[in-house]
Amino acid sequence: MQAIADTCFIVVWSKYSKSHILEEVFNTIYIPVEALQEIKSENVRSFVSKLLTRKGRLYVPIPEVYREAEELVFKVNQLGLGVHIELPESICLVVGKRRGLVVLTENLGAVAIPHILETYELVQVWRSLEIIYEACKREILKQKSSSTFIRLIKEFETETGHKFRRSEVLKYVRRLWDT
Amino acid sequence: MENKELVEILRLLEEAREIRRKYADWEFINKQPEPIKSALIYFVEDGDLYVASRIAGLTIDEMDELRKRAKIPIVV
Lengths: 179, 76
What we know:
Low-confidence stretches of chain A: none
Oligomer: heterodimer
Number of helices of chain B: 5
Helix content of chain A: 55-70%
Low-confidence stretches of chain B: none
Distance between the termini of chain A: 24 Å
Structural class of chain A: alpha/beta
Largest sheet of chain A: 5 strands, parallel
Shape of chain A: globular
């Protein structure tokens, strides 16, 4: 499985103590070249650098991708639904569609796109929650019970400053244990 | 797209905004100089770190540190 991550996602995961699971869930993680310009801190630079020496690959968009991504930004705005995306996550969505990559993002607008645009309905957009769930499902992170899974989620929330909706967490608890 | 799906997406966006408003440290935010204060308020209302970082004149990782200090959660 291959993925492309936007900058916000990379910044958030650089703070997570179990970030190694990214490299176990995905064979390759593409990082758009623009992301490097958005990273100053030593810790995040070090995280990206380590990722690039192993399963990470730097992605440099071609002009067609920029054009398609810019069109997507306007198309979403023109829908007038109150959902918007910006160019960085739009680039990831376009590449995700063209290359069949999972898009890794922490942006709700990007998460909404496959649900609001038919041309993007096959693009898989994953948040951190989906990655942690996938790691548990594949037993990369072994969880004995729903309570240890919930503790794992809380640990992520504390380390990265996230809040997951309880209903979303419970949805994945049911998928893991109510079979 | 089914109307039901759109309603759900809009509900999630509003719910995320409410959660950010609730957990934000407003005392910290209101003490910040401009344009940092405006960038943090934008992040509370919209949840887009990239745009907030452009308002603040910071990189995304610097903006993420700032929103953590302001106790504004990322809600997705």
